[in-house]
Specification:
Helix content is about 5%, strand content about 50%. It is mostly beta strands.
């Protein structure tokens, strides 16, 4: 099972990037998919998560209104569209997945990083002022 993240790069403040996370090895259409990020010297933090149907989404307050998470189960891919990027968005971005069995969507989308079973390798986003 592999998650392959891509799409990172260097942009100026106010710019946009679209991250992709391609899953292989098994079907992830029953998994919650999430994006986390880790800036140098800081702990990994939650960015966004989406349920398997795509019908429920949760965002960190710092990115709400600027980032959009989506998924294409047919392609086993999850996306993170990032608009109006700020220097404080600079970090390595990781996609992750776990199978939510009995949780409500509300709880499933607020699961800690330790609940996620599968992780991508990270893609670096650098935003300059």
């Amino acid at each position: 099972v592999q998650l392959q993240a891509s799409g990172g790069g260097a942009v100026q403040a106010g710019g946009s990037l679209r991250l992709s996370c391609a899953a292989s090895g098994q079907t992830f259409n029953r998994h919650v998919m999430g994006w986390f990020r880790q800036a140098p010297g800081k702990e990994r933090e939650f960015v966004a998560a989406i349920t398997w149907s795509g019908g429920n989404i949760n965002y960190a307050g710092s990115v709400k209104g600027r980032f959009t998470i989506s998924r294409d189960n047919a392609e086993n891919t999850v996306y993170l569209q990032m608009n109006n990027l700020k220097p404080e968005d600079t970090a390595a971005y990781y996609c992750a997945a776990y199978r939510s069995l009995s949780r409500t969507a509300y709880r499933a989308l607020r699961a800690p990083a330790s609940d996620y079973d599968y992780w991508g390798q990270g893609t670096l986003v650098t935003v300059s002022s």
